[in-house]
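Q: What would this chain look like folded?
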Amino acid sequence: MLLVTGGAGFIGSNFVLDWLTQNSEPIVNLDKLTYAGNLENLQSLKDNSNHIFVKGDIADSALVSELLQKYKVRAVINFAAESHVDRSIHGPGEFIQTNVIGTFNLLECARNYWNTLAQKEKESFRFLHVSTDEVFGSLGAKDPAFTEQHRYEPNSPYSASKAASDHLVRAWLHTYGMPVLTTNCSNNYGPYHFPEKLIPLVIHNALKGKPLPIYGDGQQIRDWLYVTDHCSAIRCVLEKGLVGETYNIGGCNEKANLQVVHTICDLLDAKMPKTDGTSYKNQITFVTDRPGHDKRYAMDASKIERELGWRPAQTFETGMAKTVDWYLNNSQWTENVTSGAYRDWVAKQYV
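A: My prediction, written as C-alpha coordinates:
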Protein backbone atom coordinates (compact mmCIF):
# COMPACT_ATOMS: atom_id res chain seq x y z
CA MET A 1 0.00 0.00 0.00
CA LEU A 2 1.11 3.58 -0.69
CA LEU A 3 0.98 6.47 1.76
CA VAL A 4 0.26 9.63 -0.22
CA THR A 5 0.50 12.91 1.69
CA GLY A 6 -1.33 15.99 0.45
CA GLY A 7 -3.57 13.79 -1.67
CA ALA A 8 -6.55 16.14 -1.56
CA GLY A 9 -4.63 19.03 -3.12
CA PHE A 10 -4.27 19.80 -6.81
CA ILE A 11 -1.40 17.52 -7.87
CA GLY A 12 -1.94 15.00 -5.07
CA SER A 13 -5.60 14.39 -5.88
CA ASN A 14 -4.81 14.03 -9.57
CA PHE A 15 -2.16 11.46 -8.67
CA VAL A 16 -4.55 9.50 -6.44
CA LEU A 17 -7.25 9.46 -9.14
CA ASP A 18 -4.73 8.53 -11.82
CA TRP A 19 -3.12 5.79 -9.71
CA LEU A 20 -6.40 4.11 -8.84
CA THR A 21 -7.52 4.00 -12.48
CA GLN A 22 -4.33 2.14 -13.39
CA ASN A 23 -3.49 0.07 -10.29
CA SER A 24 -5.25 -2.18 -7.80
CA GLU A 25 -2.76 -1.26 -5.07
CA PRO A 26 -4.57 0.75 -2.35
CA ILE A 27 -3.67 4.25 -1.20
CA VAL A 28 -3.78 5.77 2.27
CA ASN A 29 -4.34 9.46 1.63
CA LEU A 30 -3.21 11.79 4.45
CA ASP A 31 -4.22 15.43 4.05
CA LYS A 32 -4.66 18.26 6.54
CA LEU A 33 -7.39 19.84 4.39
CA THR A 34 -6.07 23.37 4.51
CA TYR A 35 -7.67 25.92 2.15
CA ALA A 36 -6.36 24.16 -0.99
CA GLY A 37 -7.17 20.61 0.13
CA ASN A 38 -10.56 19.64 -1.22
CA LEU A 39 -12.31 16.30 -0.72
CA GLU A 40 -14.63 17.20 -3.59
CA ASN A 41 -11.66 16.40 -5.86
CA LEU A 42 -11.96 12.79 -4.68
CA GLN A 43 -15.74 12.46 -4.83
CA SER A 44 -15.54 9.72 -7.45
CA LEU A 45 -13.65 7.52 -4.96
CA LYS A 46 -16.20 7.68 -2.15
CA ASP A 47 -17.15 4.02 -2.61
CA ASN A 48 -13.69 2.80 -3.62
CA SER A 49 -12.25 0.52 -0.93
CA ASN A 50 -8.76 1.07 -2.33
CA HIS A 51 -8.84 4.70 -1.20
CA ILE A 52 -8.50 5.31 2.54
CA PHE A 53 -8.67 8.98 3.45
CA VAL A 54 -7.26 10.22 6.77
CA LYS A 55 -7.50 13.86 7.80
CA GLY A 56 -4.27 14.79 9.55
CA ASP A 57 -0.98 16.65 9.56
CA ILE A 58 2.34 15.26 8.36
CA ALA A 59 3.85 16.97 11.42
CA ASP A 60 1.82 14.64 13.70
CA SER A 61 4.39 11.96 14.52
CA ALA A 62 2.00 9.64 16.30
CA LEU A 63 -0.49 9.64 13.44
CA VAL A 64 2.09 9.17 10.68
CA SER A 65 3.80 6.35 12.57
CA GLU A 66 0.46 4.66 13.18
CA LEU A 67 -0.49 4.80 9.50
CA LEU A 68 2.85 3.40 8.36
CA GLN A 69 2.59 0.42 10.70
CA LYS A 70 -1.12 -0.21 10.38
CA TYR A 71 -1.18 -0.29 6.58
CA LYS A 72 2.26 -1.88 6.02
CA VAL A 73 3.22 0.96 3.69
CA ARG A 74 5.75 0.09 1.02
CA ALA A 75 6.25 3.65 -0.29
CA VAL A 76 5.61 7.23 0.82
CA ILE A 77 4.90 9.89 -1.82
CA ASN A 78 5.09 13.35 -0.31
CA PHE A 79 2.97 15.97 -2.08
CA ALA A 80 2.06 17.79 1.15
CA ALA A 81 3.22 21.40 0.87
CA GLU A 82 2.21 25.01 1.03
CA SER A 83 2.89 26.05 -2.54
CA HIS A 84 1.67 29.56 -3.43
CA VAL A 85 4.47 32.13 -3.69
CA ASP A 86 2.16 35.08 -3.00
CA ARG A 87 0.91 33.49 0.21
CA SER A 88 4.48 32.78 1.31
CA ILE A 89 5.32 36.46 0.97
CA HIS A 90 2.43 37.46 3.22
CA GLY A 91 2.80 34.59 5.71
CA PRO A 92 6.07 32.61 5.50
CA GLY A 93 5.63 30.87 8.86
CA GLU A 94 3.11 28.32 7.57
CA PHE A 95 5.49 27.40 4.76
CA ILE A 96 8.33 26.69 7.18
CA GLN A 97 6.01 24.63 9.37
CA THR A 98 4.60 22.44 6.60
CA ASN A 99 7.40 22.28 4.06
CA VAL A 100 10.36 22.04 6.44
CA ILE A 101 9.13 20.78 9.81
CA GLY A 102 6.49 18.59 8.19
CA THR A 103 8.99 16.97 5.81
CA PHE A 104 11.46 16.43 8.65
CA ASN A 105 8.79 14.68 10.71
CA LEU A 106 7.69 12.55 7.76
CA LEU A 107 11.28 11.50 7.10
CA GLU A 108 11.86 10.56 10.74
CA CYS A 109 8.66 8.55 10.99
CA ALA A 110 9.47 6.79 7.71
CA ARG A 111 13.04 6.08 8.85
CA ASN A 112 11.88 4.57 12.14
CA TYR A 113 9.33 2.43 10.31
CA TRP A 114 11.84 1.42 7.61
CA ASN A 115 14.26 0.22 10.28
CA THR A 116 11.64 -2.26 11.55
CA LEU A 117 11.13 -3.92 8.17
CA ALA A 118 12.50 -7.29 7.15
CA GLN A 119 15.43 -7.06 4.75
CA LYS A 120 13.41 -7.73 1.59
CA GLU A 121 10.77 -5.12 2.45
CA LYS A 122 13.49 -2.72 3.54
CA GLU A 123 15.18 -2.95 0.16
CA SER A 124 11.96 -2.33 -1.75
CA PHE A 125 10.73 0.59 0.39
CA ARG A 126 10.81 4.07 -1.18
CA PHE A 127 10.33 7.66 0.03
CA LEU A 128 9.51 9.86 -2.98
CA HIS A 129 9.65 13.59 -2.32
CA VAL A 130 7.86 15.86 -4.81
CA SER A 131 9.56 19.24 -5.22
CA THR A 132 9.66 22.16 -7.63
CA ASP A 133 11.83 23.91 -10.21
CA GLU A 134 11.61 27.08 -8.11
CA VAL A 135 14.39 25.86 -5.81
CA PHE A 136 16.85 26.60 -8.64
CA GLY A 137 16.03 30.30 -8.77
CA SER A 138 15.67 32.35 -11.93
CA LEU A 139 17.19 32.01 -15.40
CA GLY A 140 18.19 34.64 -17.92
CA ALA A 141 16.59 34.64 -21.35
CA LYS A 142 19.44 32.70 -22.97
CA ASP A 143 20.56 30.56 -20.04
CA PRO A 144 20.40 26.78 -20.48
CA ALA A 145 17.53 25.03 -18.73
CA PHE A 146 17.84 23.71 -15.18
CA THR A 147 19.48 20.32 -14.88
CA GLU A 148 19.53 18.16 -11.77
CA GLN A 149 23.02 19.54 -11.03
CA HIS A 150 21.97 23.19 -11.04
CA ARG A 151 22.85 25.12 -7.88
CA TYR A 152 19.97 25.88 -5.51
CA GLU A 153 19.17 29.61 -5.49
CA PRO A 154 15.65 30.03 -4.04
CA ASN A 155 14.24 33.55 -4.17
CA SER A 156 10.95 33.37 -2.24
CA PRO A 157 9.94 32.02 1.18
CA TYR A 158 8.09 29.25 -0.65
CA SER A 159 11.03 28.14 -2.78
CA ALA A 160 13.41 28.47 0.18
CA SER A 161 11.22 26.18 2.27
CA LYS A 162 11.07 23.63 -0.55
CA ALA A 163 14.84 23.83 -1.01
CA ALA A 164 15.27 23.14 2.70
CA SER A 165 13.02 20.08 2.44
CA ASP A 166 15.00 18.80 -0.56
CA HIS A 167 18.20 19.11 1.47
CA LEU A 168 16.65 17.17 4.35
CA VAL A 169 15.71 14.34 1.99
CA ARG A 170 19.26 14.24 0.63
CA ALA A 171 20.70 14.22 4.16
CA TRP A 172 18.49 11.31 5.24
CA LEU A 173 19.87 9.35 2.27
CA HIS A 174 23.53 10.06 3.00
CA THR A 175 23.35 9.92 6.79
CA TYR A 176 20.88 7.12 7.39
CA GLY A 177 20.81 5.26 4.08
CA MET A 178 17.12 6.02 3.55
CA PRO A 179 15.95 4.86 0.08
CA VAL A 180 14.77 8.27 -1.16
CA LEU A 181 13.88 9.70 -4.55
CA THR A 182 13.32 13.38 -5.40
CA THR A 183 11.47 14.92 -8.32
CA ASN A 184 11.57 18.59 -9.29
CA CYS A 185 8.70 19.57 -11.54
CA SER A 186 7.83 22.63 -13.58
CA ASN A 187 4.52 24.56 -13.39
CA ASN A 188 1.58 22.16 -13.36
CA TYR A 189 -1.86 22.92 -14.76
CA GLY A 190 -5.07 20.97 -15.31
CA PRO A 191 -8.21 19.82 -13.46
CA TYR A 192 -8.82 20.64 -9.77
CA HIS A 193 -6.29 23.50 -9.74
CA PHE A 194 -7.18 25.91 -6.94
CA PRO A 195 -8.14 29.21 -8.59
CA GLU A 196 -5.49 31.42 -7.07
CA LYS A 197 -2.87 30.20 -9.56
CA LEU A 198 -2.59 31.83 -12.98
CA ILE A 199 -4.46 29.49 -15.31
CA PRO A 200 -7.57 28.67 -13.23
CA LEU A 201 -7.73 32.26 -11.96
CA VAL A 202 -7.78 33.62 -15.51
CA ILE A 203 -10.43 31.10 -16.63
CA HIS A 204 -12.63 31.90 -13.63
CA ASN A 205 -12.24 35.67 -13.89
CA ALA A 206 -12.79 35.67 -17.63
CA LEU A 207 -16.11 33.84 -17.33
CA LYS A 208 -17.19 36.15 -14.50
CA GLY A 209 -16.37 39.28 -16.49
CA LYS A 210 -13.65 40.27 -14.03
CA PRO A 211 -10.17 41.67 -14.75
CA LEU A 212 -7.48 39.17 -15.75
CA PRO A 213 -4.54 40.27 -13.54
CA ILE A 214 -1.08 40.01 -15.11
CA TYR A 215 1.99 40.73 -12.98
CA GLY A 216 4.36 43.35 -14.41
CA ASP A 217 4.74 43.07 -18.18
CA GLY A 218 3.61 39.44 -18.30
CA GLN A 219 6.89 38.27 -19.81
CA GLN A 220 7.81 35.90 -16.99
CA ILE A 221 8.50 32.54 -18.62
CA ARG A 222 7.52 29.16 -17.19
CA ASP A 223 7.69 25.59 -18.43
CA TRP A 224 4.12 24.24 -18.33
CA LEU A 225 3.41 20.60 -17.43
CA TYR A 226 -0.04 19.03 -17.72
CA VAL A 227 -0.80 17.46 -14.36
CA THR A 228 -1.54 13.92 -15.56
CA ASP A 229 1.83 13.91 -17.33
CA HIS A 230 3.37 14.76 -13.97
CA CYS A 231 1.46 11.85 -12.41
CA SER A 232 2.75 9.43 -15.03
CA ALA A 233 6.30 10.65 -14.41
CA ILE A 234 6.00 10.06 -10.67
CA ARG A 235 4.71 6.54 -11.30
CA CYS A 236 7.70 5.99 -13.56
CA VAL A 237 10.20 7.29 -11.00
CA LEU A 238 8.62 5.19 -8.24
CA GLU A 239 8.87 2.07 -10.38
CA LYS A 240 12.22 2.58 -12.12
CA GLY A 241 14.10 5.41 -10.40
CA LEU A 242 17.47 4.71 -8.79
CA VAL A 243 17.64 5.28 -5.04
CA GLY A 244 19.18 8.62 -4.18
CA GLU A 245 18.62 10.13 -7.62
CA THR A 246 16.82 13.36 -8.49
CA TYR A 247 14.75 13.65 -11.65
CA ASN A 248 13.57 16.84 -13.35
CA ILE A 249 10.02 16.61 -14.73
CA GLY A 250 9.11 19.19 -17.35
CA GLY A 251 6.48 19.74 -20.00
CA CYS A 252 8.86 21.01 -22.71
CA ASN A 253 6.57 24.05 -23.02
CA GLU A 254 8.23 27.36 -22.21
CA LYS A 255 5.65 30.12 -22.41
CA ALA A 256 5.45 33.71 -21.17
CA ASN A 257 2.59 34.37 -18.76
CA LEU A 258 0.99 36.82 -21.19
CA GLN A 259 1.11 34.19 -23.94
CA VAL A 260 -0.62 31.72 -21.60
CA VAL A 261 -3.38 34.21 -20.90
CA HIS A 262 -3.83 34.95 -24.60
CA THR A 263 -4.14 31.22 -25.27
CA ILE A 264 -6.85 30.90 -22.62
CA CYS A 265 -8.73 33.87 -24.04
CA ASP A 266 -8.56 32.44 -27.58
CA LEU A 267 -9.91 29.09 -26.35
CA LEU A 268 -12.73 30.77 -24.42
CA ASP A 269 -13.55 33.01 -27.39
CA ALA A 270 -14.05 29.84 -29.44
CA LYS A 271 -15.73 27.62 -26.83
CA MET A 272 -17.76 30.16 -24.82
CA PRO A 273 -17.97 33.39 -26.83
CA LYS A 274 -19.14 36.53 -25.07
CA THR A 275 -22.61 37.74 -25.95
CA ASP A 276 -21.31 41.14 -27.06
CA GLY A 277 -18.88 39.53 -29.50
CA THR A 278 -15.76 41.01 -27.89
CA SER A 279 -12.69 39.02 -26.89
CA TYR A 280 -11.87 38.01 -23.33
CA LYS A 281 -8.49 39.65 -23.97
CA ASN A 282 -10.18 42.99 -23.32
CA GLN A 283 -10.30 42.02 -19.63
CA ILE A 284 -6.50 41.78 -19.30
CA THR A 285 -5.21 44.14 -16.61
CA PHE A 286 -1.55 44.64 -15.74
CA VAL A 287 -0.86 44.89 -12.00
CA THR A 288 2.22 45.71 -9.92
CA ASP A 289 4.76 42.88 -10.07
CA ARG A 290 5.26 40.84 -6.92
CA PRO A 291 8.50 41.16 -4.91
CA GLY A 292 11.37 38.95 -6.08
CA HIS A 293 9.42 37.59 -9.05
CA ASP A 294 11.61 35.07 -10.91
CA LYS A 295 11.91 35.93 -14.59
CA ARG A 296 12.25 32.50 -16.15
CA TYR A 297 12.14 28.81 -15.27
CA ALA A 298 13.03 26.09 -17.77
CA MET A 299 13.51 22.39 -17.11
CA ASP A 300 15.92 20.03 -18.80
CA ALA A 301 14.05 16.74 -18.46
CA SER A 302 16.44 14.74 -20.64
CA LYS A 303 17.64 12.59 -17.72
CA ILE A 304 14.23 11.07 -16.97
CA GLU A 305 13.68 10.45 -20.70
CA ARG A 306 17.13 8.95 -21.21
CA GLU A 307 17.25 6.80 -18.08
CA LEU A 308 13.60 5.95 -17.40
CA GLY A 309 11.94 6.39 -20.80
CA TRP A 310 9.42 9.05 -19.77
CA ARG A 311 8.16 11.91 -21.94
CA PRO A 312 5.07 14.11 -21.55
CA ALA A 313 2.10 12.99 -23.60
CA GLN A 314 0.42 16.41 -23.84
CA THR A 315 1.56 19.44 -25.78
CA PHE A 316 0.74 22.87 -24.41
CA GLU A 317 -2.05 23.20 -26.95
CA THR A 318 -3.72 19.87 -26.16
CA GLY A 319 -3.26 20.29 -22.41
CA MET A 320 -4.71 23.80 -22.39
CA ALA A 321 -7.71 22.70 -24.45
CA LYS A 322 -8.36 19.85 -21.97
CA THR A 323 -7.99 22.27 -19.05
CA VAL A 324 -10.38 24.89 -20.40
CA ASP A 325 -12.90 22.17 -21.25
CA TRP A 326 -12.69 20.78 -17.72
CA TYR A 327 -13.39 24.16 -16.10
CA LEU A 328 -16.27 24.85 -18.49
CA ASN A 329 -17.78 21.46 -17.64
CA ASN A 330 -17.17 21.73 -13.89
CA SER A 331 -18.35 25.22 -13.06
CA GLN A 332 -19.96 24.02 -9.83
CA TRP A 333 -16.58 22.85 -8.51
CA THR A 334 -15.15 26.29 -9.17
CA GLU A 335 -18.13 27.99 -7.54
CA ASN A 336 -17.71 25.82 -4.46
CA VAL A 337 -14.07 26.77 -3.94
CA THR A 338 -14.32 30.45 -4.86
CA SER A 339 -16.43 31.45 -1.89
CA GLY A 340 -15.76 33.18 1.40
CA ALA A 341 -12.11 33.23 2.42
CA TYR A 342 -10.88 32.75 -1.14
CA ARG A 343 -12.66 35.91 -2.35
CA ASP A 344 -11.13 37.81 0.56
CA TRP A 345 -7.68 36.59 -0.47
CA VAL A 346 -8.10 37.59 -4.11
CA ALA A 347 -9.35 41.05 -3.12
CA LYS A 348 -6.31 41.49 -0.87
CA GLN A 349 -3.75 40.19 -3.34
CA TYR A 350 -4.92 41.82 -6.55
CA VAL A 351 -6.26 45.10 -5.22
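The domain at 2-187+226-252+292-315 is CATH 3.40.50.720 (Rossmann fold).
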